[in-house]
Amino acid sequence: MMEGEFKIRVTYAMRGRLVMLSHLEVARALERAVRRADLPFAVTQGFSPHMKLAFGAALPVGVGGDHEIFDVTMTEYVDPDEALRRLQDASPYDLMPESVEYITREVKAASVAYPFGTYRAVFDGPVDGLQVPDSITVIRKKKEKQLRPADFLVGALEKNGNEMLFTLEAKPSGSLRPDVLVNAMLDGAEDGLVNTDLGAARSDTRLHVVSLMRIAQRAE
Question: Which pLDDT belongs to residue 122?
Answer without folding.
Answer: 96
